[in-house]
Design brief:
alpha+beta, about 250 residues, about 20% strand, 3-stranded antiparallel sheet, Zincin-like
Amino acid sequence: MGKTKTRPLSTEERKARLEEVAAKLEAGVRRITDTEEFREYLRFMGNFHSYSANNVLLIHIQNQEATMVAGFHDWKKRRRSVCKGEKAIKILAPMTGKARDEITGEEKSQVFGFRAVSVFDISQTEGEPIPEAPDPQDLAGSSEGVETLYRSLISVAEAQGVRCFDQGGEEFHGQDGLKGFYDRTNRMIKLRFGLSPNQRAKTMCHELAHHFLHREDRKYLTRETAELCRYPEVGQDRVRRAFGLPAPPSPA
C-alpha cells in the first residue's frame, strides 16, 4: 500500500495556523498572571532549557504533563514513533534567510518570520526507551595534584581581578545542590564551605568559566577558552584528565 502524500499548506492556511498559535500564546500569558499558575509554569520551564519562553508557554498551554518534546521525524531518529491519533503540540519555529549588510556588504543569516510547527511529547510516542541521565554525584576525596590545580585556578582568578571566597551554606539562599556561583557585579566567586578538594577544584573551574564567558572583551578569547566558556563541562573534563581527577557526573 502506497504512502499518502501530504498536501502543502497554502499561504492562507499557513497564516491561519500561525494566528491560531499566536492566540494561544496571548491567552496563556493572560492566564499565568495568576500567582499559583505562574509558579507551576516556572517549575514546568525546568524541563525545557533549550526552548524559548514563548514556546515553553505554548507547550504548557497544550500539554501540562509534557516532559520532552520533539518533531515527528526527530522521534523517528530516536527509534520512536508517534502513536496513531495523537494531537500535535504547536510551537513557533523561526524562518531564516540570507541578507546582505548594507554597510559592510557581508551576507548574514537573519530571521524574517516564524511558522507554526508540530511537536509531540514522549508520552505520545512508543518505541525504544530514551536513556536516562545518571544521578548527579559529588566528587569525593582528594587526588594527586588537585591542590596545585586549585591554587592555580585561584591565581588565574586573582589575575583577572576576581576575588574568591569559601562561604557557609547561608550564602546560597537555601539551594542545597548549589556548590558555588559567580557574582558578576562584584567580580567574586563564592564556593560552598566544606567541599572535598576534588569537588572544590571542579567547582572553581566551572565558576571561572562563567567569568570568562561574561567578560566584555570575550571576542579576543582563544577557541579553547571559548569552548570552556560555552560548555564548561568540556573544559572541566580537559582539566580533570590533565590532573588525573575522577569524573563522575555532578552539578557544579
